[in-house]
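Review form for a predicted model. The reviewer records the input and the model, then writes brief findings.
Reviewer: anonymous (R2)
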Amino acid sequence: MRLLKLIAVLLDYPQDDLWAHADELREACADPALSPARRVALRGFVDDLVAQEPMAAQERWLGLFDRGRAMSLLLFEHIHGESRDRGQAMVDLLATYRGHGFELGVKQLPDYLPVVLEYLSLRPVEEVRDWLSHVAHILELLAARAQERGSPYAVLLETLVETAAGKLDLAALRTRVASEERDDTPEAIDRVWEEEAVRFGAEAPGEECNPPTRLPSGAKRIEPTVTP
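Model under review:
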């Protein structure tokens, strides 16, 4: 799905060479799979992004996704926190990628949302929908938080929610996140990183963030090796 590749590029940290591909990004926004309104919204995001100086765009990205954990694009932070299960989940995800000939860069983490989307952009549509359904609750939460913070990145996350769930209804979640304590202030960042388990707002992840009992289609689970 070309749409997932586009969102993967736009969600990623804006590297300096992104500006050289502005016309290609605009062209990709005309994906016929999107509604006219969504095409306009994505084109508006691209135009706004490339109109900025790279350093300003990079600072905006860091301010949203790299200060605090509530907006983390590392999916397993929202599912496993800092538990040991996260390490095994990473191993399983890497095995799945490699099993389909998808290799990561040296510094890439397998649960980084743009990486997941790039992988899925190469997979069959039914598999894509299955995978996205497993993380739809995280995408919805990220979209609602981005909306609440007035971030332009909300349009990318909303598009993912629509792709995963076939609809966009974040009213209840927006009410919930409006009451959350922000975790991107200097004081909050210091406090959160001192905790053993990740927490979002005033509460730890609820049951809706528990890992699914069924793996997405095409995913592999590697049993941990026990040394005698």
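Findings: The two ends are 45 Å apart (CA to CA).
Further findings: Residues 2-209 form one domain.
Recommendation: see findings above.
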